[in-house]
Every structure is written in C-alpha cells, then in structure tokens.
TrEMBL record, chain A:
Keywords: ATP-binding, Nucleotide-binding, Transport. Signal peptide: none annotated. The keyword Transmembrane does not apply. It comes from Lysinibacillus contaminans. Residues 1-229 form the ABC transporter domain. SMART domains: AAA. PROSITE patterns: ABC_TRANSPORTER_2. SUPFAM superfamilies: P-loop containing nucleoside triphosphate hydrolases. This is ABC transporter.
C-alpha cells in the first residue's frame, strides 16, 4: 500500500506551473523530495495538504482522496514546515492544551517527553525561542498524535548540523514502526542520504525521476577525464556533462558503459547538479 | 472548534493585564461623568478589537497554513472567530451590566431602563460591525482590512449630513420606539449569520 500517491498533478501560478507531477510513497519508507529553490516542492506539498487548490490531478493518501476524506486523512498525518506557524505569544504548554482538543489521541506525556529530550522550555513564548527550538517544537507538535505519515517541508533548513542530526535521529526513531512513512522535502541532500529510501527529484515544476536511493546511486557513475577520453563513452549512457578547466565530468548510466572506464560514485547532490546544470542529454 | 476558541482565549489572556488596566480607567471616567451606560459600548468595542487582534496574530504567524493541516473544518475555523466575538461581547456586557446599573443608580442623567435600551443597541451595532468586519479581514487580511474599515469610517463621516438629515431622522424615530431595539437585535443576528456564510465561502476559496 502507498502512503501517498500523486497522479498527473497540475497547478499553475503566474510564471510557474507544476506539470504532470506523479510519484508514490510506499508505506514504511522515507522519500526525499529534492529540487532547487522554486522547483515546486512546497507547491506540491501544499497541494497534497489542500492548502493550495490543484488545477487537476489525483492525490491519494492511504488510498483515499485527499479532499473527500480530508479530516480523516489529516488525523493521521503530521506536518512540519520550515517555520512554526503558531501565534508567537503562546508557549509550548498552551499549544499542548490546544492540540489535545484537536486530536482525540493526543499524547501529552509523549509531547512533554519530546520537549524535555529537545530541551525546549515549555513555558517560554514561541517568540522567545531560537529557530532550532521552534523547529524542535514543531516536530514535537507533529509527532504527538502518533501520525502514520509525516510530511516535512524543509524542516532542517537553516539549522546547524548538530540540531539537524538530532532531528534526523528522531525521524529514524519514528520509522521504527514499519507502518510509518515520511515525505521529506529538502535541498540539503546530505540529510536525505542519511534517511531516505526513495528520491524524487523535481525541477521547474516537473518530476525528473522518482526512484529508490540505492538504485539511483548505483545506477549512475561520474567519469572524470579529458574530452578525448570522454569521446569513447557511448552517447546513450551520458546523462549530463560539465566542462572544467582541466577536463570534463560526465554523469553516466554505469551499466551502459564499459568496465574499462573508472567511474566515481556520485552523491544525490551530484546527480541533482548534473541534471540541473549539466544539461540533460537524454 | 473548541480548540480554536481556546487558542484565541489564550491569546486574550496574554493581553489581560493591559485590558484590565484600561477597563478600570474607563470605569473611573464613566463613574466620574456618571454615565454608566457608556461602559457597554466600551466593552463591545474591546470585544471587537480583540477579535481583530486574534486575526492579526493569526496572519502574522501564517496560522491558517498550520490550522489547515489539522483535522479542522474550514467552517469551524471561520465560525470560531464569530463565536469568539459573540462570546466576548455578550460575556463582557453581562459582567459589566451590574457596574453600569450601579453607576447609573447614582446618576441624575439616565434612568435604569435606558441601560437595557443601550445594551440592545450596543449589541446590535456590535453584531453588525462584526458581520461587516470579519469577511473583510478574512478576504483582505489585516493590513488591507484596516484600510477598508478606515475608508468606510471616512465615507460615513463624509455622509454625515446626509445621514443626519434623512436616514438619521428615521433611525432616531425608530429607536424612540422601544420595541424596535428588539427587532434590531434580531436583524443584527441575521446579519451575523449571513456574514458567516459569506466568510466561509471566502475562506474556502483561499489558498494558504
């Protein structure tokens, strides 16, 4: 079963459009949703949450239509944005009272445990918290009704590596239950390499690929050499090419080139950069 | 909806100290000039200002984006603002009434029955004000909402002569008829319901 399925999603604004966005997130997995700023990650997430009205397309969460079963679905999801959107005069204890009235299964004990774990002061107003603290509070709020799906829109952007690591650990802990799933939008690809099972790459409002991270990283290799050496590469294997002062770097489909070529293992960031800046040749 | 209502009350609690100080100051002034009934419009105004303040707080933190990820209907999100306005206004007026009577009792100017009449007129105007203001704020946000309200007030001032000469005369005659204030109250309520329906339509069309 898929936790999330998007088929042929379209949404347009002035100067930007999501086109034919389709991908699915299998239950029990983490999907990294990557793309540069303005590629359409947040727009897609907002369409999933019905914060933006889609032009057309189908969005299913837990196999149910996201509008028809909106309340039922929203009881089972936790959402973290890149900022905490709650009135800044409230504190974590007041937010607990609010959330307890929203979710019948709100777990106050779990919530305060997370706050203690993250060292988030429960009586301090939101406006007095640092950005890192706000994000931790936001994550505690998203987790404490024990959702089945976490939708994270750039939750680690602007945070230092130590806090990011703590947050990623918490997400890994959440994934211990194999019915749980995460859609994790980020342009910090190193975070995704740590926890993602699948990578979906969006560029200019369209999906370039959506596949298993391991397959993705094993499928590609980077060839570094001179232009003459590179000319021996089969054209159909080349995905993207970057010319430098001392030669070329070419992203190739590993299994379509001879083993005689020495290829380096790419990172998600490399694949992303070749796709965006290297010129997609196929 | 209870959750949203509680959240707005928690925001009110944040300003409680200032509001009590302001209220005591107004009680002093009203007591000094022996016009107890004046407390009522003041309380209604405070209730309306508080609803506007919660809308402004919500807008500043992009609350709607968060609220719409929760299992809350859009009707409930809109309705909570109306409920807050009505509750604060009626609750505040109920608490203030004995004080208004007390001040009026020692006054030479207003008789007790006038406090009831003032109450009905104040509630009607308060309902009407909420009915106009909430859809405007939901549609345009607090920044533009404020300007639109100022424009309305400015136009009302400009049309003062017209109002005084034509409509005002009719209105005063109606108000003089004591029973009209009961009808006005019902009209105020109907306006509020009509406004709620419009506000929900506006809110449902919005992107967050």
């Amino acid at each position: 079963m898929n936790a999330l399925e998007i088929h042929d999603l379209h949404k347009s604004f002035e100067g930007f459009a999501l086109k034919n966005v389709s991908f699915s997130l299998p239950q029990g997995t983490v999907m990294g949703f990557v793309g540069e700023n303005g590629a359409g990650k947040s727009t897609t997430i907002k369409c999933v949450l019905n914060l933006l009205k889609k032009k057309h397309g189908e969005i299913l969460l837990f196999g149910k239509d996201h509008i028809e079963h909106e309340l039922e679905i929203k009881s089972d999801i936790g959402v973290v944005f890149d900022d905490l959107h709650v009135p800044e005069v409230l504190n974590a204890t007041q937010l607990d009272k609010f959330m307890a009235k929203v979710f019948p299964n709100w777990d106050s004990a779990y919530y305060f445990e997370r706050l203690t774990q993250f060292k988030v002061p429960s009586k301090k107003k939101v406006k007095e918290l640092s950005r890192g603290m706000k994000m931790k509070l936001s994550i505690a709020l998203a987790l404490s009704h024990h959702p089945k799906l976490l939708i994270l829109d750039e939750p680690t952007s602007g945070l230092d590596p130590i806090i990011r690591d703590e947050i990623l650990d918490l997400f890994l802990e959440f994934m211990q239950d194999n019915t749980h799933s995460i859609l994790f939008s980020s342009h910090i690809t190193s975070d995704l390499e740590k926890i993602a099972d699948y990578i979906t790459f969006i560029h200019n409002g369209g999906i370039l690929f959506s596949q298993s991270k391991d397959v993705l990283l094993h499928e590609y290799g980077i060839f570094k050499g001179t232009i003459e050496e590179a000319s021996a590469l089969p054209e159909h294997a080349i995905v993207g090419q970057r010319n430098g002062a001392f030669g070329v770097e070419i992203l190739v489909r590993k299994y379509e080139v001879s083993e005689a070529f020495i290829l380096e293992k790419p990172s998600i960031e490399d694949v992303m950069l070749f796709y965006v800046k290297g010129g997609i040749l196929t | 909806m209870t959750a949203l209502f509680v959240k707005d009350l928690m925001i009110a609690q944040h300003k409680l100290k200032n509001q009590i100080i302001l209220f005591l100051f107004i009680v002093f002034i009203v007591g000094f000039i022996q016009q107890g009934a004046l407390l009522l419009p003041f309380i209604a105004l405070m209730a309306i200002i508080h609803v506007i303040a919660t809308l402004t707080y919500d807008e500043q933190c992009n609350w709607d984006q968060f609220a719409n990820t929760l299992p809350l209907t859009k009707n409930a999100i809109v309705c909570s603002k109306y409920l807050l306005g009505i509750t604060l206004m009626l609750g505040g007026l109920t608490i203030t009434m004995p004080l208004a009577f007390f001040i009026t009792h020692f006054s030479d100017f207003v008789i007790i029955t006038d406090v009831y009449l003032t109450l009905r007129i104040v509630v009607t105007i308060g309902f009407g004000f909420l009915a106009i203001m909430l859809p405007i704020y939901i549609q345009f946000g607090s920044f533009f909402g404020r300007y639109i309200m100022l424009t309305f007030s400015f136009l009302a001032l400009l049309s003062g002569d017209f109002f005084e000469n034509y409509i005002g005369g009719i209105l005063l005659q109606l108000i003089e008829v004591k029973y009209f204030s009961y009808v006005a109250l019902i009209i105020g309520l109907i306006l509020l319901i009509f406004s709620y329906v419009i506000a929900v339509i506006i809110y449902k069309r919005k992107d967050f």
